[in-house]
């Protein structure tokens, strides 16, 4: 299966093409709907995204003769899922189906580790499996691959055994392997998982936690215990446990049990910026509609209870194409802008910028991308401003709190005394409306600050 | 001794004032001698540098009421020597006389470690001391404090026992302390030491080494074994040993035994940029003169034998003051330029920039700074270009190789076939002139590529 090579090269190509698009943008190409009191995102419609097998092959061949310096391939492996590069040493780590790789910066193989297949079944819990369960030889698909720089370890999580993670030595992935029996990531090949490390409770930035976003999966009685979004401890004796927990609160968010089977959330990308962690997701506009949109999820690093959990829709609209809306985010990257782009966005070259590629739904109202895509660029400064506007709007008694897939949406109630850092610190008695239990049976439903507004798109 | 507080606050003030000066520069203040084919360094004459005790006190008081959020002081300690901040966690580490500190990002004390005083004498080797030696209770002055991010360890080196280093856990400096008996840094309170970690042999960037520059000290028979510049291993079983050694070569440079007592080199700052490690130094213009100048020392990260060891003089000249020359570098920092400064320097905001503060000799021809100082800004791109020009000039058969304090200076000889990466890879048979033993008795003298030219100042 030589396709592994193509996948790997495609990653390189993607990096290159993103860079070239960005330089085009910084030369002044624009075209988007202008929003009120909002620097618009820059947009440029780019290449056809979904390559057929033939076109992928020819693209690879064309690139290899010109740009590729070195390649690494493993014909025996089905798919490379994730790739991370140690920023200190340049070492390359790859998470694949049933295998992990450690390569040198020149892509020479240093070590491999077999991670599957193993006997497993959806009915098995993370800790045990009775002999009556019919177990099958199951692939271990790599779902997350993250470097913990504060302890020089590689964290890899696979789909086997309800999605558990292991910790390895960065210098040699075969050394000191510790497997932790805690369900962290998605437990099949297709359900999305995003994981990244950033400051978090109890004591940021000294304590770093792993932020994880996971699509809910059916078929196992144990998946209801895996939060959709959580912050997980990286402390030696509490590895991957929810970083902070109390009886009904903690660093976790569940989609409520009534909504979770018909309200899939796909986690596409995650990143941290200036005191907050963000996830880019696709989900339905309302629990009652089937129209898919992209949303930014945000929690504050200081927040031990996810009181600051907030979402805003994020759109990518082509003004040049008569307001064509690219509604489904497909991939993203947070970096810095070049001088020209920074100047266009009204920021400095040291400020964070989100580059995100979107597609249209095809068929309409589905979560499947069409073969057209667009790149939109947002300054994190603008994103923070939009979150702030929404939160203030709700605190002033306007609109609905939204997010009824977590807990029933309530009307925002005017709150006279807003706490100073009200983006982060929202103790229950400062919430704009009184908590309500409603129809959800999820224990921590009432603690979220839900400030999503269907009218408050990031770009308009 | 409340001066400790002042020292610490002065560090903060210095950071702030550097930033404000840079913004002034980026607004277009310039004044310097223009060099041929060379983007000039920007220069601005700034504050009187040597504050008297009274003025320091008033400056501190003025600042504390406006800008200081939090302070940490220890009246029981004589001096804070070094401060490093973990870029991942924000933890603060301080190396002081006889003490190490670990503080939280909010400057709350987490841990302290006593490092001295202990019984020691110059006549003791790093490994042993006979009972006949008259040992004195001696302070342990912190000479280097470095974070090794690839293994999450803190490296601290003190003046005791010929200047040895210890390795500690970043999470708790009292945990897992390993002391290594190897003479690495200067062995008294005043002789300079600069240490930093960057990629190095045998396999950069996977292998990181500690680059160390040390002033030669008198009074001990063991100091001749400590190189002036060296790259030291960070591998567990070879900790602080010279990274690569052969019979006459290796990652080390000695000042020859005839010159070292009358040719002091002061190491002021060290940094890595794009494949090279640099030291900023003050030293004499010639071994035969007593005029002090500033020089940049450079070695290539790939170089297992310091064949690429090269120096260029670096000056800071005020055109506005009629060509006044600030000859002694006092402090420096490598960072990125803001958009305006980047544009002025002809670089991008992602390129490295060297900010360096210089003084004049006072009295003339001394290594003592006057009470006037100036800040000069250089792009690393310009610095690399100047090194390249000098090396090419010598390879073309022009000038002297210089650096006669290492080995006798020879006339550059035209070399027809320059190796492709001739900045780094200079095997002996490609050297512009045949090696000579001359008057120096230092075994590795003949292997340096000496391309220092008194006429090729960085700015002119």
TrEMBL record, chains A, B:
Keyword hit for Signal: yes
GO biological process: cell differentiation
Domain Sema residue range list: 53-460
InterPro entries reported in the protein's UniProt record: Plexin (IPR031148), Semap_dom (IPR001627), Semap_dom_sf (IPR036352), WD40/YVTN_repeat-like_dom_sf (IPR015943)
Pfam family, one: Sema
Record keywords, A-Z: Differentiation, Signal
Residues of the signal peptide: 1-19
Record-annotated membrane-spanning stretches: none
Superkingdom of the organism of origin: Eukaryota
PROSITE patterns: SEMA
Annotated protein name in UniProt: Sema domain-containing protein
Organism of provenance: Cryptolaemus montrouzieri
């Amino acid at each position: 299966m030589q396709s592994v090579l193509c996948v790997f090269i495609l990653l390189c190509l993607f990096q290159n093409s993103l860079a070239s698009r960005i330089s085009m943008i910084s030369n002044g190409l624009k075209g988007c709907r202008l929003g009120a009191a909002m620097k618009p995102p820059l947009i440029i419609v780019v290449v056809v995204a979904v390559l057929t097998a033939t076109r992928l092959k020819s693209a690879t061949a064309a690139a290899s003769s010109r740009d590729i310096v070195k390649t690494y391939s493993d014909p025996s492996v089905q798919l490379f899922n994730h790739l991370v590069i140690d920023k200190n040493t340049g070492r390359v780590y790859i998470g694949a189906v049933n295998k992990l790789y450690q390569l040198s910066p020149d892509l020479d193989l240093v070590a491999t580790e077999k991670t599957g297949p193993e006997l497993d079944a959806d009915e098995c819990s993370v800790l045990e499996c009775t002999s009556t369960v019919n177990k099958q030889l199951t692939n271990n698909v790599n779902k997350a691959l993250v470097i913990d720089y504060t302890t020089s370890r590689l964290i890899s999580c696979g789909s086997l055994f309800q999605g558990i993670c292991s910790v390895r030595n960065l210098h040699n992935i075969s050394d000191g392997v510790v497997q932790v029996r805690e369900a962290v990531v998605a437990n099949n090949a297709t359900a999305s998982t995003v994981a990244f490390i950033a400051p978090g409770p109890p004591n940021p930035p000294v304590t770093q936690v792993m932020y994880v976003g996971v699509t809910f999966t059916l078929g196992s009685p144990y998946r209801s215990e895996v939060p959709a979004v959580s912050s997980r401890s990286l402390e030696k004796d509490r590895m991957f446990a929810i970083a902070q927990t109390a009886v009904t609160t903690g660093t976790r968010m569940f989609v409520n049990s009534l909504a979770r089977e018909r309200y899939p959330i796909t986690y596409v990308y995650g990143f941290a910026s200036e005191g907050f962690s963000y996830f880019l997701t696709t989900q339905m506009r309302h629990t009652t509609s089937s129209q898919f949109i992209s949303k930014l999820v945000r929690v504050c690093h200081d927040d031990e209870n996810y009181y600051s959990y907030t979402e805003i829709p994020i759109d990518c609209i082509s003004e040049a194409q008569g307001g064509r809306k690219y509604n489904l985010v497909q991939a993203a990257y947070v970096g810095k802008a070049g001088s020209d782009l920074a100047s266009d966005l009204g920021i400095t070259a040291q400020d964070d910028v989100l580059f995100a590629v979107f597609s249209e739904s095809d068929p309409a109202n589905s979560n499947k991308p069409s073969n057209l895509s667009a790149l939109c660029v947002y300054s994190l400064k603008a994103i923070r401003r939009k979150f702030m506007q929404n939160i203030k709007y709700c605190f002033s008694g306007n609109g609905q709190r939204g997010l009824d897939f977590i807990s029933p949406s309530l009307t925002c109630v005017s709150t006279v005394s807003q706490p100073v850092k009200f983006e982060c610190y929202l103790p229950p008695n400062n919430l704009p409306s009184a908590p309500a239990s409603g129809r959800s049976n999820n224990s921590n439903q009432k603690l979220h600050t839900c400030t999503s507004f269907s009218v408050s798109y990031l770009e308009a």
